[in-house]
Amino acid sequence: MPGYARGGRRPEILETFTRHVAERGYDRANFSDVAAELGVSKGTIVHHFGTKDRMLAEVQERYMRARLAEAGALFDRLPGPEQRIAALVHAGVRYSAREPATTVAFQREVVRLVDQPGMGSARALRDEYRDLVVGVLHDGEADGTFVPGDARLRSLQMFGSLHWMWTWFDPAGRLAPEAVAAEFALTLLRGLGVDEAAARAAADPAGAAAGAVDSVVGVVGAAPATVTVSASPTSA
Predict the structure, then answer these.
(1) Which of 30, 72, 94, 227 suits a disulfide with 100, CB 3.0-4.6 Å?
(2) Whole-prediction pTM value?
């Protein structure tokens, strides 16, 4: 009957909402449009999720849980700090191509994690991921792989280059995701003082770090979804 949603529609509702957030931004995404697209009632969406804030929180939490699980799997495969950093960069770029909707929805609304009510769990997961990266940077300093520096600040530089990709990066454009990731990783590792040969080996899109990403990303993460985001004139 019209407006009736089986329990199995819940993932579809969340996926559609996520795509709308990615394409329009959270403020312009609404239950009415999601309901109209799926042929369900707004009441059905409220029944499953409660509020729009709660839906966004679930999107953020799911995204970060997947990223943490993937990071753990990558670290199990890669012992060196330079390999781990390169793998995280390769993975970060790969998300933009493989999971565009969830990645863009997370990145463009990440500011809401700062102090929005109901975002505590997502905020804690994001902080856990940041601490994981900072820990790798500290490990690299301790064993002499990286030159001494402010690990927290360095992590922000890394995240900044990855989390704004949605504003300019076109996975079907001039540069393939693997090429962008390799360039980002090489630049970052050089800045950390890694030997040139070791930096190139770690950043290599055909190397161990990128290979580990190929075997991990998409296994734990969500299935890809189609999303259309207006690209800037400088998109690559």
Answers:
(1) 227
(2) 0.84
